Amino acid sequence: MRRARFALPLAAVLFAALIAVSAAPGQAPSPAEKHIVIFHINDVHGKIDNFAKVAAILDAERKTGGDVFFFSAGDNFTGDPVIDRADPPGEPMVELLDRLHLDLLSLGNHEFDYGLDAVRKLVAHFPTISANIAPEPGILPGLKPYVVLTAKSGVKLVVFGIIQIEPGNGLPSTHPDKVKGLRFSEPIATALGLKKLRGEGEVFVGLTHIGHDQDIALAKQMPELDVIMGGHSHTRIDAPELINGVLIAQAGADNQFLGRIDLTVRDGRVAEKTSRLIDLSKAKDEDAAIKAMIVKFHDNPAMARVIAKAPVEITGKNALGSLMTDAICKVFDLDIAFQNNGGIRVNKLPLSITFHDLYTLDPFGNQVVRIDMTTAEIRSLIRNSCERRHDIDLQVAGMSYIVRENGTQQIQEIELLGPNGSPLPEDRTYKVGLSSYIASSYRFEHKDPGRTLGITTAEALIMYLERGADLRTYREVRRRATYLKAPAPAGD
Questions:
Q1: Residues above pLDDT 90, as percent of the chain
Q2: Which of 49, 54, 328, 470 has its CA 20 to 30 A from that of 261?
Q3: What φ, ψ does residue 476 adopt, rounded to 5°?
Q4: Is residue 1 in some structural domain?
């Protein structure tokens, strides 16, 4: 179990202060300088294969005797059945991060996908932070808004965490049932209320899970920060990015890169800072023990069983979303089905489709929900989905639709078309299939409260394929949803 590093005994701190830490190879040591290295990951989403390389890199740096930390900016779960379908879910990730000696975790939205028991396990294993989460008593004991970590050299790092929330419901992007008992505040406003922490250490860090655009917005309003290490948007920041004097870093997604921050602390403040990404595909050394753990976690023959063979790779959100929604309609004899783009977690399926492929495509375990909806209610669902992103968010089966915007991000018209291309009748009620995530997270009109149909969206897809679905129809899928943006008014 990893815990935050605390101050060393006074004699050790005084001794460490006499030792120069080089700011760069070949430079003469300066007793006034301390060098801090922070490795960081974000949005790993269950992709564990490169952790043996990460372990080797961390171990090599730690053996130098310098000040080395390892942080995660969230979303370690959800995206690979090796992790998602373990017993209990997420356990291999917890074991690996424990062996990698993770120093600090800022919660991401997908940390909640397995429920609060899994989050409690994370909090029990690792120092875990998020300033804009307020749990009810006893829900997440040990979760802190921020921590003060003390390096071996005596340098103090003050680090706070924040998590994204959706504008519609004020919750992170996970199933609402998974975050019961938690209250969430606006992340940037919460962070700005922590400016006073600047005086508690030499290094002030935001370990955020709010996305790159929001990190930039935070940096513009909070120059007190030295560094923001972010996640959620899966942004790959290769070169150092300074905004308002704040270094912003993010390491892409899926454990393809390891971020490295180098800080030089001089006279009680960060005097120099830089960042870079380590391309793990080019790293050669691997930790043998971690590699053996990964091989063991992958040893699940059931996941390798081929369910169906396709004539071509099924590629892109339109084709995959059509496949997933067709499955819901066919398996349950429904008129219409919707699938949100964020729930489509790969960009293609191979020619030989396995259980592993399908649970990677749809890892969330969302139930299929049937809601009987009028045409007006369907239109309200589509309007809500487009207002969230100002683009197509819902893939569909059983109909198609066209959304027209007036040039000022206001929806002017939503045209609903039946399978034959004619307008969808306005006086009918339709049997509509949704994931439980859409049914509970999206705001839309529906008199029918709906009912769960007893299987998950991934299981519906498996049943559809096992029944012999004609996968040739997904070779060239006509777009079923279109978003048309009018030119912005002149002068804007």
A1: 87
A2: 49
A3: -135, 95
A4: no
